[in-house]
Design brief:
By secondary structure, this protein is an all-alpha fold. The protein is built from five helices and no strands. The protein has a domain of 51 residues: Arc Repressor Mutant, subunit A. The model has no long low-confidence stretch (mean pLDDT 90).
């Protein structure tokens, strides 16, 4: 990002004050990896149809037995990074909460 000129002859922001003619578009490389609404929707339906992966079921089982640390460790081993593992454990906790909500509704 270009800083606005100061109007002073010397210094970091030297030069006459001008209005910016064009602001560059954000680069595609900045938005890579961002999930679109359509993709998220398709993945949600696929997960609903197919169900959970075996390691996800194991994580849920560990969470139900109050072994949060072990669950995070398993998720990290399967997914590669601590951040991804943590996010997966959060998602599985939401799945458990949703299952409880549907059980109490019936």
């Amino acid at each position: 990002m270009v800083q606005e000129r100061s109007g002073i002859v010397v210094g970091l922001n030297s030069g006459r004050k001008t209005t910016a003619l064009n602001t560059p578009k954000t680069r595609i490389s900045r938005s890579v990896g961002k999930s679109s609404r359509r993709t998220a929707f398709v993945r949600e339906i696929a997960a609903e149809v197919v169900g959970l992966a075996p390691y996800e079921r194991r994580i849920i089982e560990l969470l139900r037995n109050a072994q949060d640390k072990r669950a995070r460790k398993l998720a990290k081993k399967r997914l590669g990074t601590f951040g991804r593992g943590k996010a997966k454990v959060e998602a599985m906790q939401k799945v458990i909460a949703e299952a409880r909500r549907t059980q109490t509704a019936h």
